[in-house]
Design brief:
Elements: E1 4-7, H1 15-26, E2 32-33, E3 48-49, H2 62-65, H3 69-74, E4 84-88, E5 106-110, H4 115-118, H5 129-146, E6 151-154, H6 157-167, E7 172-173, H7 180-183, H8 191-198, E8 205-210, H9 217-227, E9 231-236, H10 240-250, E10 254-258, H11 262-271, E11 274-276, H12 285-292, E12 297-300, H13 305-308, E13 315-318, H14 326-337, H15 341-347, H16 353-363
Parallel strand pairs: 1-2, 1-4, 2-3, 4-5, 5-6, 6-7, 8-9, 8-11, 9-10, 11-12, 12-13
Helix pairs in contact: 9-10, 9-14
Protein backbone atom coordinates (compact mmCIF):
# COMPACT_ATOMS: atom_id res chain seq x y z
CA UNK A 1 0.00 0.00 0.00
CA UNK A 2 1.52 3.40 -0.95
CA UNK A 3 1.94 6.35 1.34
CA UNK A 4 0.33 9.80 1.18
CA UNK A 5 2.20 13.06 0.54
CA UNK A 6 0.79 16.09 2.38
CA UNK A 7 1.68 19.72 1.66
CA UNK A 8 0.18 23.07 2.75
CA UNK A 9 -0.87 24.41 -0.68
CA UNK A 10 0.72 23.88 -4.07
CA UNK A 11 2.27 26.78 -5.98
CA UNK A 12 4.06 27.04 -9.33
CA UNK A 13 7.36 28.02 -7.77
CA UNK A 14 9.01 27.58 -4.40
CA UNK A 15 11.61 25.63 -2.48
CA UNK A 16 8.92 23.80 -0.50
CA UNK A 17 7.34 22.66 -3.76
CA UNK A 18 10.75 21.38 -4.88
CA UNK A 19 10.62 19.03 -1.90
CA UNK A 20 7.14 17.85 -2.90
CA UNK A 21 8.46 17.32 -6.45
CA UNK A 22 11.06 14.90 -5.11
CA UNK A 23 8.63 13.11 -2.79
CA UNK A 24 6.27 12.69 -5.76
CA UNK A 25 9.09 11.33 -7.95
CA UNK A 26 10.40 8.94 -5.29
CA UNK A 27 6.89 7.65 -4.43
CA UNK A 28 4.97 7.81 -7.74
CA UNK A 29 1.96 5.88 -6.43
CA UNK A 30 1.34 8.22 -3.49
CA UNK A 31 -1.52 10.73 -3.77
CA UNK A 32 -0.85 14.36 -2.79
CA UNK A 33 -3.13 16.09 -0.28
CA UNK A 34 -3.12 19.91 -0.13
CA UNK A 35 -5.45 22.65 1.05
CA UNK A 36 -5.64 23.86 -2.56
CA UNK A 37 -3.71 23.48 -5.81
CA UNK A 38 -2.49 26.63 -7.56
CA UNK A 39 -0.05 24.66 -9.74
CA UNK A 40 -2.20 22.37 -11.90
CA UNK A 41 0.53 22.18 -14.53
CA UNK A 42 3.26 21.30 -12.05
CA UNK A 43 1.68 18.28 -10.39
CA UNK A 44 -0.53 15.61 -11.95
CA UNK A 45 -4.09 16.79 -11.12
CA UNK A 46 -5.19 13.16 -10.83
CA UNK A 47 -2.87 12.75 -7.84
CA UNK A 48 -3.88 15.93 -6.02
CA UNK A 49 -6.72 16.09 -3.49
CA UNK A 50 -7.94 19.52 -2.34
CA UNK A 51 -9.99 20.55 0.71
CA UNK A 52 -13.14 22.66 0.96
CA UNK A 53 -10.98 25.79 1.23
CA UNK A 54 -10.11 25.37 -2.45
CA UNK A 55 -13.72 26.21 -3.32
CA UNK A 56 -13.72 29.50 -1.38
CA UNK A 57 -12.11 32.96 -1.82
CA UNK A 58 -9.93 32.11 1.22
CA UNK A 59 -7.48 30.31 -1.06
CA UNK A 60 -6.42 33.78 -2.24
CA UNK A 61 -6.27 35.24 1.29
CA UNK A 62 -3.89 33.08 3.28
CA UNK A 63 -3.94 35.24 6.43
CA UNK A 64 -7.75 35.12 6.55
CA UNK A 65 -7.70 31.35 5.92
CA UNK A 66 -5.28 30.79 8.80
CA UNK A 67 -7.85 30.23 11.61
CA UNK A 68 -9.69 27.61 9.51
CA UNK A 69 -6.65 25.54 8.61
CA UNK A 70 -6.03 23.51 11.80
CA UNK A 71 -9.59 22.18 11.82
CA UNK A 72 -9.53 21.52 8.07
CA UNK A 73 -6.38 19.42 8.39
CA UNK A 74 -8.04 17.29 11.09
CA UNK A 75 -11.03 16.36 8.93
CA UNK A 76 -9.56 14.95 5.74
CA UNK A 77 -11.30 12.26 3.72
CA UNK A 78 -10.91 8.51 4.05
CA UNK A 79 -7.67 7.13 2.63
CA UNK A 80 -5.80 3.86 2.79
CA UNK A 81 -2.05 4.15 3.32
CA UNK A 82 0.82 2.54 5.19
CA UNK A 83 2.47 5.86 5.99
CA UNK A 84 2.10 9.63 5.59
CA UNK A 85 4.80 12.22 4.89
CA UNK A 86 3.95 15.86 5.57
CA UNK A 87 5.85 18.75 3.99
CA UNK A 88 5.04 21.49 6.50
CA UNK A 89 5.73 25.20 6.86
CA UNK A 90 2.43 26.06 8.53
CA UNK A 91 -0.05 23.38 9.68
CA UNK A 92 0.27 20.48 7.22
CA UNK A 93 1.74 18.33 10.02
CA UNK A 94 -1.70 18.49 11.69
CA UNK A 95 -3.05 16.23 8.92
CA UNK A 96 -5.40 13.43 10.02
CA UNK A 97 -7.30 11.19 7.63
CA UNK A 98 -10.37 9.05 8.10
CA UNK A 99 -10.38 5.36 7.20
CA UNK A 100 -7.35 3.04 7.42
CA UNK A 101 -4.89 5.95 7.02
CA UNK A 102 -6.04 7.34 10.35
CA UNK A 103 -3.58 5.07 12.15
CA UNK A 104 -0.72 5.28 9.64
CA UNK A 105 2.56 6.63 11.05
CA UNK A 106 3.06 10.29 10.18
CA UNK A 107 6.55 11.47 9.18
CA UNK A 108 7.09 15.24 8.99
CA UNK A 109 9.55 17.25 6.89
CA UNK A 110 9.64 20.74 8.41
CA UNK A 111 10.55 23.82 6.39
CA UNK A 112 9.92 25.82 9.58
CA UNK A 113 7.42 25.89 12.42
CA UNK A 114 4.86 28.48 11.32
CA UNK A 115 6.75 31.76 11.32
CA UNK A 116 3.42 33.63 11.41
CA UNK A 117 2.77 32.45 14.95
CA UNK A 118 6.16 31.39 16.37
CA UNK A 119 8.65 33.89 14.88
CA UNK A 120 6.74 36.96 13.66
CA UNK A 121 9.97 38.96 13.89
CA UNK A 122 11.12 36.99 10.82
CA UNK A 123 7.96 37.59 8.78
CA UNK A 124 5.91 40.80 8.77
CA UNK A 125 2.77 38.84 7.93
CA UNK A 126 2.78 37.55 11.51
CA UNK A 127 2.24 41.08 12.79
CA UNK A 128 -1.25 41.48 11.35
CA UNK A 129 -4.08 41.94 13.85
CA UNK A 130 -5.78 38.73 12.66
CA UNK A 131 -2.71 36.57 13.19
CA UNK A 132 -1.75 38.19 16.52
CA UNK A 133 -5.24 37.54 17.89
CA UNK A 134 -5.21 33.88 16.85
CA UNK A 135 -1.56 33.12 17.73
CA UNK A 136 -1.79 32.04 21.41
CA UNK A 137 -4.45 29.38 20.78
CA UNK A 138 -2.78 28.26 17.55
CA UNK A 139 0.59 27.81 19.29
CA UNK A 140 -0.92 25.47 21.88
CA UNK A 141 -2.65 23.36 19.22
CA UNK A 142 0.41 23.37 16.99
CA UNK A 143 2.74 22.10 19.71
CA UNK A 144 0.42 19.23 20.69
CA UNK A 145 -0.05 18.08 17.09
CA UNK A 146 3.66 18.20 16.34
CA UNK A 147 4.05 15.58 19.06
CA UNK A 148 2.03 13.13 16.91
CA UNK A 149 4.89 12.68 14.44
CA UNK A 150 6.46 9.25 14.25
CA UNK A 151 9.64 10.99 13.02
CA UNK A 152 10.63 14.49 12.02
CA UNK A 153 13.26 16.05 9.74
CA UNK A 154 14.17 19.74 9.51
CA UNK A 155 15.48 21.41 6.37
CA UNK A 156 18.36 23.03 8.28
CA UNK A 157 20.05 23.10 11.67
CA UNK A 158 18.48 26.52 12.26
CA UNK A 159 15.00 25.03 11.79
CA UNK A 160 15.91 21.98 13.90
CA UNK A 161 16.71 24.39 16.74
CA UNK A 162 13.36 26.17 16.28
CA UNK A 163 11.55 22.82 16.38
CA UNK A 164 13.20 21.95 19.68
CA UNK A 165 12.45 25.39 21.13
CA UNK A 166 8.83 25.69 19.99
CA UNK A 167 7.60 22.10 19.87
CA UNK A 168 9.91 20.30 22.28
CA UNK A 169 10.69 17.67 19.60
CA UNK A 170 14.12 16.42 18.52
CA UNK A 171 14.45 16.30 14.73
CA UNK A 172 17.06 15.21 12.23
CA UNK A 173 18.22 17.36 9.30
CA UNK A 174 17.84 16.74 5.56
CA UNK A 175 18.73 19.78 3.48
CA UNK A 176 16.27 20.52 0.65
CA UNK A 177 17.09 19.50 -2.95
CA UNK A 178 18.93 21.88 -5.26
CA UNK A 179 19.73 21.10 -8.90
CA UNK A 180 23.44 21.71 -8.33
CA UNK A 181 24.53 19.32 -11.08
CA UNK A 182 22.30 21.01 -13.65
CA UNK A 183 23.40 24.50 -12.68
CA UNK A 184 27.09 23.68 -13.12
CA UNK A 185 26.59 23.77 -16.92
CA UNK A 186 25.25 27.00 -18.47
CA UNK A 187 21.87 26.54 -20.15
CA UNK A 188 21.14 28.08 -23.57
CA UNK A 189 19.46 31.50 -23.56
CA UNK A 190 16.92 32.96 -25.94
CA UNK A 191 18.03 35.79 -28.23
CA UNK A 192 16.17 38.24 -25.98
CA UNK A 193 17.92 36.90 -22.88
CA UNK A 194 21.30 37.06 -24.61
CA UNK A 195 20.65 40.72 -25.42
CA UNK A 196 19.69 41.42 -21.82
CA UNK A 197 22.91 39.84 -20.51
CA UNK A 198 25.01 41.72 -23.05
CA UNK A 199 23.40 44.99 -21.95
CA UNK A 200 24.25 44.60 -18.25
CA UNK A 201 27.04 46.58 -16.58
CA UNK A 202 30.44 44.89 -16.79
CA UNK A 203 30.47 44.43 -12.98
CA UNK A 204 27.48 44.24 -10.65
CA UNK A 205 26.12 42.81 -7.42
CA UNK A 206 23.16 40.44 -7.71
CA UNK A 207 20.11 40.05 -5.49
CA UNK A 208 17.33 37.65 -6.46
CA UNK A 209 14.09 36.79 -4.67
CA UNK A 210 10.54 38.00 -4.34
CA UNK A 211 10.43 41.77 -3.86
CA UNK A 212 8.92 41.66 -0.35
CA UNK A 213 10.18 43.37 2.83
CA UNK A 214 11.57 40.38 4.73
CA UNK A 215 13.88 39.48 1.82
CA UNK A 216 15.75 42.72 2.63
CA UNK A 217 16.62 43.62 -0.94
CA UNK A 218 16.95 47.19 0.33
CA UNK A 219 20.22 46.02 1.93
CA UNK A 220 21.45 44.82 -1.49
CA UNK A 221 20.86 48.34 -2.87
CA UNK A 222 22.73 49.83 0.10
CA UNK A 223 25.55 47.33 -0.50
CA UNK A 224 25.77 48.61 -4.07
CA UNK A 225 26.12 52.15 -2.73
CA UNK A 226 28.85 51.03 -0.30
CA UNK A 227 30.81 49.29 -3.08
CA UNK A 228 30.07 51.94 -5.74
CA UNK A 229 28.74 49.16 -7.99
CA UNK A 230 25.56 48.70 -10.01
CA UNK A 231 22.98 46.29 -8.63
CA UNK A 232 20.83 43.78 -10.53
CA UNK A 233 17.71 42.53 -8.75
CA UNK A 234 15.91 39.54 -10.28
CA UNK A 235 12.38 38.60 -9.31
CA UNK A 236 9.28 40.71 -8.77
CA UNK A 237 6.81 41.85 -6.18
CA UNK A 238 5.22 44.78 -4.32
CA UNK A 239 8.54 46.39 -3.24
CA UNK A 240 9.57 47.17 -6.84
CA UNK A 241 8.85 50.90 -6.76
CA UNK A 242 10.32 51.34 -3.27
CA UNK A 243 13.57 49.66 -4.39
CA UNK A 244 13.82 51.91 -7.45
CA UNK A 245 13.28 54.98 -5.24
CA UNK A 246 15.93 53.78 -2.77
CA UNK A 247 18.43 53.27 -5.61
CA UNK A 248 17.81 56.81 -6.87
CA UNK A 249 18.27 58.15 -3.35
CA UNK A 250 21.67 56.44 -3.02
CA UNK A 251 22.82 57.09 -6.58
CA UNK A 252 22.92 53.36 -7.40
CA UNK A 253 22.43 52.10 -10.94
CA UNK A 254 19.68 49.49 -10.51
CA UNK A 255 18.59 47.00 -13.16
CA UNK A 256 15.43 44.98 -12.49
CA UNK A 257 14.98 41.63 -14.24
CA UNK A 258 11.38 40.46 -14.00
CA UNK A 259 10.76 36.77 -13.29
CA UNK A 260 13.86 35.37 -15.02
CA UNK A 261 13.86 31.88 -16.48
CA UNK A 262 16.09 29.26 -14.87
CA UNK A 263 18.61 29.68 -17.68
CA UNK A 264 18.67 33.46 -17.36
CA UNK A 265 18.99 33.32 -13.57
CA UNK A 266 21.98 30.99 -13.97
CA UNK A 267 23.58 33.47 -16.36
CA UNK A 268 22.96 36.31 -13.89
CA UNK A 269 24.65 34.35 -11.12
CA UNK A 270 27.69 33.73 -13.33
CA UNK A 271 28.01 37.33 -14.49
CA UNK A 272 27.78 38.86 -11.01
CA UNK A 273 30.72 39.65 -8.75
CA UNK A 274 28.78 38.22 -5.80
CA UNK A 275 25.27 37.14 -4.85
CA UNK A 276 24.17 39.26 -1.88
CA UNK A 277 21.69 37.61 0.49
CA UNK A 278 20.80 39.73 3.56
CA UNK A 279 17.62 37.81 4.47
CA UNK A 280 17.33 35.42 7.41
CA UNK A 281 15.88 32.29 5.77
CA UNK A 282 15.00 28.84 7.05
CA UNK A 283 17.50 27.36 4.58
CA UNK A 284 17.83 29.47 1.43
CA UNK A 285 17.82 27.73 -1.96
CA UNK A 286 19.14 30.64 -4.01
CA UNK A 287 22.50 31.00 -2.22
CA UNK A 288 23.17 27.33 -3.00
CA UNK A 289 22.17 27.91 -6.64
CA UNK A 290 24.62 30.81 -6.82
CA UNK A 291 27.37 28.65 -5.32
CA UNK A 292 26.61 25.90 -7.87
CA UNK A 293 27.54 28.36 -10.63
CA UNK A 294 30.78 29.26 -8.84
CA UNK A 295 29.49 32.62 -7.57
CA UNK A 296 30.48 33.68 -4.04
CA UNK A 297 27.70 34.52 -1.57
CA UNK A 298 27.68 37.34 0.95
CA UNK A 299 25.09 36.47 3.59
CA UNK A 300 24.28 36.58 7.30
CA UNK A 301 25.67 34.57 10.20
CA UNK A 302 22.06 33.74 11.11
CA UNK A 303 19.62 31.35 9.44
CA UNK A 304 20.18 28.57 6.94
CA UNK A 305 22.73 30.44 4.82
CA UNK A 306 25.21 30.10 7.69
CA UNK A 307 25.07 26.32 7.07
CA UNK A 308 25.35 26.38 3.29
CA UNK A 309 28.05 29.04 2.94
CA UNK A 310 31.51 28.07 4.17
CA UNK A 311 33.31 31.20 5.33
CA UNK A 312 36.36 31.82 3.20
CA UNK A 313 35.53 28.93 0.83
CA UNK A 314 32.18 29.73 -0.81
CA UNK A 315 31.44 33.16 0.59
CA UNK A 316 31.57 35.64 3.44
CA UNK A 317 29.14 35.95 6.36
CA UNK A 318 28.21 39.25 8.05
CA UNK A 319 26.80 39.45 11.59
CA UNK A 320 24.42 42.41 11.41
CA UNK A 321 22.24 43.89 8.70
CA UNK A 322 24.18 47.14 9.06
CA UNK A 323 27.26 45.27 7.85
CA UNK A 324 25.90 45.47 4.30
CA UNK A 325 26.81 49.15 4.30
CA UNK A 326 30.06 51.12 4.38
CA UNK A 327 33.56 49.78 4.92
CA UNK A 328 32.42 46.44 6.42
CA UNK A 329 30.67 45.48 3.21
CA UNK A 330 33.56 46.67 1.04
CA UNK A 331 35.93 44.43 3.02
CA UNK A 332 33.50 41.47 2.73
CA UNK A 333 33.24 41.99 -1.03
CA UNK A 334 37.02 42.07 -1.41
CA UNK A 335 37.27 38.72 0.39
CA UNK A 336 34.41 37.18 -1.60
CA UNK A 337 35.80 38.32 -4.95
CA UNK A 338 39.15 36.65 -4.19
CA UNK A 339 37.63 33.16 -3.68
CA UNK A 340 38.26 30.31 -6.11
CA UNK A 341 35.13 29.84 -8.22
CA UNK A 342 35.82 26.16 -8.91
CA UNK A 343 36.05 25.49 -5.17
CA UNK A 344 32.81 27.40 -4.61
CA UNK A 345 30.98 25.22 -7.17
CA UNK A 346 32.41 22.02 -5.68
CA UNK A 347 31.23 23.03 -2.18
CA UNK A 348 27.62 23.12 -3.38
CA UNK A 349 27.52 19.43 -4.39
CA UNK A 350 26.56 18.33 -0.87
CA UNK A 351 23.15 19.96 -1.48
CA UNK A 352 22.48 18.28 -4.82
CA UNK A 353 19.13 16.61 -5.50
CA UNK A 354 20.81 13.19 -5.48
CA UNK A 355 21.90 13.76 -1.88
CA UNK A 356 18.35 14.68 -0.87
CA UNK A 357 16.94 11.58 -2.59
CA UNK A 358 19.45 9.32 -0.84
CA UNK A 359 18.65 10.80 2.58
CA UNK A 360 14.88 10.54 2.06
CA UNK A 361 15.12 6.86 1.01
CA UNK A 362 17.00 6.16 4.22
CA UNK A 363 14.38 8.03 6.26
CA UNK A 364 11.01 6.99 4.82
CA UNK A 365 9.55 3.51 4.31
CA UNK A 366 10.15 1.87 0.92
Amino acid sequence: MPGIIVHEWLERFGGAENVVDRFAALYPQAPIQALWNDAPGRFDPARVHETWLARTPLRRRKALALPFQPSTWRHLGAQDADWIVCSSHLFAHHARFAGPARDAPKHVYVHTPARYIWNPELDDRGRSATVRAAAPALRAIDRSRAAEAASMMANSVAVRDRIREHWGVDAGVIHPPVDVTGLRTPAPLTAEEDALIDGLPSEFLLGASRFVPYKRLDAVVRAGAAAALPVVLAGGGPERDALLALARQHGVTLVLVDSPSRALLGALYRRSIAYVFPAVEDFGIMPVEAMATGTPVIGRTTGGVAESVQEGVSGVLIDELGGFEGSEFRAALDRAASLDRAAIAASALRFDTAEFDRAVREWLPA
